[in-house]
Amino acid sequence: MGLLGTKHSRRAMLTGTAASAMAWAIVAKARAGETYAPSVSGPFNFEVQKTEAEWRDQLNDLEYQVLREGATEFPTTSPYWNTNDPGMYHCKGCDLPLYTSEWYSPQQIGFVFFNHSDPNAVLTGIHQTDYNGALPEPKMMMEAHCRRCGGHLGHILIIEGEVLHCINGTALDLKPADA
Ligand SMILES: [Zn+2]
């Protein structure tokens, strides 16, 4: 599920509380290849909660896999990876404004990068991924997910010393600035 807030993660690392046990349970699940399941009924109550059937009804297959199962799209899947028109990138799950085009950071990696999210829009968690086999071994990553619906957006990485949000364009909907 990978949806522990930053505070929880820090505390877990420091004190080894139940939150820590939970985090490791999540990792174990991911290793076993089980479904990534955002915790809509667990310790963090997201403002927007829907049943799996409702999510499947709203999202197409790829959007569902990325937002609800923590999948990573294949590089260059989304046109946003190398185009950035003025506007605001919203969450495909709940329409929360997440990233402004002003924070867009062009990278030749095939995903959508931003230097920052909008304030109070993105939470972090722990998530294990191998980026569709791009990494030799699955790795623990800092996950970025929507503050309102818990949808998995991507990860927060350090690339050449720069902190960047590496986001699946599939999870985003760019609304033009003049709309
Ligand atoms: Zn959302």
In words, what does this structure look like?
- This protein is α+β, with helices and mostly antiparallel strands and 179 residues long.
- It has a single domain, classed as Peptide methionine sulfoxide reductase (Metal Binding Protein, Guanine Nucleotide Exchange Factor, Chain A), CATH 2.170.150.20.
- Helices cover 22% and strands 26% of the residues.
- The chain is built from 4 helices and 8 strands.
- It has a 5-stranded antiparallel sheet. A 3-stranded antiparallel sheet has the order 2-1-8, with no helix packed on it.
- Strand 1 and strand 2 (97-100) form a beta hairpin.
- Helix 1 (6-15) crosses helix 2 (18-31).
- The longest helix has 14 residues, at 18-31.
- The chain is globular and about 40 Å long.
- The protein starts with 5 loop residues before the first helix and ends with a strand.
- The structure holds zinc ion.
Gap between N and C termini, in Å?
Answer: 35 Å
- For this structure, what is the CATH class? Mainly Beta
Average predicted local confidence, pLDDT:
81
By DSSP (H or I, 4+ residues per run), the number of helices equals: 4
- And the CATH topology? Metal Binding Protein, Guanine Nucleotide Exchange Factor, Chain A
Bound molecules: zinc ion
The overall strand count is 8
CATH homologous superfamily (4th level) name: Peptide methionine sulfoxide reductase
- Weakly predicted, low-confidence segments: 1-36
Helical content class: 10-25%
- The global form is globular
The total number of structural domains is 1
Computed CA radius of gyration, to the nearest angstrom: 16 Å
What's the helix-strand series? HHHHEEEEEEEE
CATH architecture descriptor name: Beta Complex
